[in-house]
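Interim report, section 4.2 (structural modelling).
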Amino acid sequence: MHEWALAEAVITAAQQIAEKEELKEIREVNIKIGELQQVERDIFRFALSQLKPASFKNATFRISTAKTTLKCRVCEHTWLFSKSNLDEDTAEAIHFVPEVAHSYIKCPKCGSPDFEISEGRGVWLENIKGVR
Amino acid sequence: MDPRTTVINERLRRIGRIIAVSSGKGGVGKSLVATTLALELVRSGYKVGLFDLDFTSPSTHLIMGVKNVQPEEDKGIIPPVMKGLAYMSLIHFSGDQAAPLRGADVSNALIELLAVTQWGELDFLVLDMPPGIGDVVLDLVRLVKHIEFLIVTTPSRLAFETVKKQVRLLQDLQVPIIGVVENMKMNPSENIERETEKLGLQFLAGILYDPEVEDAIGDVTKLRGTTIAKKIREVSANSII
Ligand SMILES: Nc1ncnc2c1ncn2[C@@H]1O[C@H](COP(=O)(O)OP(=O)(O)OP(=O)(O)O)[C@@H](O)[C@H]1O
Ligand SMILES: [Mg+2]
Ligand SMILES: [Zn+2]
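Predicted structure of the assembly:
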């Protein structure tokens, strides 16, 4: 349920952009969600619909998912994050703060926790489209 | 764009004062001062939060003798109440595991927790800072509107020289500094007091080295009886409340 807090951040950020670009009516909001954070899309989408202000009434929220690419800083091995081999508590901890992945996940090749989350970390506002 | 930073001040809106207990130097007693200050403010009847921002070496939970708990969710993350404090630490998520984080990860975790933690209404939020003037100091100064610093040093010139640099940085950035606490004093020298006043800052207290502190670690009742706690009680009454 902390998806609400993230949705609120997206709406607030989108409003700030709309203001800066002097958009009166927003038509489209493009959001990317990294798999690592395991955001519950339905709750997130519902929260967006509840939180959106009047100028977003006709806006389409497009939510795309980005696979999470992890890259080892020691041996340069690159691999994809998968939730399936994590227990429930660990998955939930990473859901709250994706960086704690470093406490639970290790490079499958050399065992180092010193990897980079090169792509697909969390919630990202790509852009918004609207009319002045 | 990263949407998270836009909601941080909304999350902190109902907090009266946000006090970062900080030092240019490590090992000077920040965590002990931050924890006793938070506990003292609770004892005085205030609503208080404690946020351990030393993600890679958290220690306030050890000082209070509390364990990690998975926080509840309600339109964000609700900090569990421990020893009367709304208590947030990365240990709620990393547990007993090490958290080997680089600077960018520290910054990201900090922004995440600031954006999703629902502190609600608090009189004080005390922040236990990691040593130095790195990512956490810079991010807080950048992102948190009404932050204030309380600086801890030891009598050593090695500590105070780093503190001076930190003070200069904060003064340049026009961040309020409550004052300086000198910890682990071994003799009655007034050197740090004079040096603090030269910086235009209030000298809050000189705390003696107290060999009994170690025995009080993990036991809040014992902790409240230490000389540190007594001094921090005075600091709280005279310069904070
Ligand atoms: N006045 C004191 N008398 C005796 N021991 C003290 C005193 N103040 C702090 N200590 C001890 O010194 C050590 C360092 O204290 P503490 O962890 O609070 O410092 P810190 O500045 O938070 O360190 P770090 O930079 O690693 O976060 C601890 O073992 C603590 O118990
Ligand atoms: Mg500390
Ligand atoms: Zn590797």
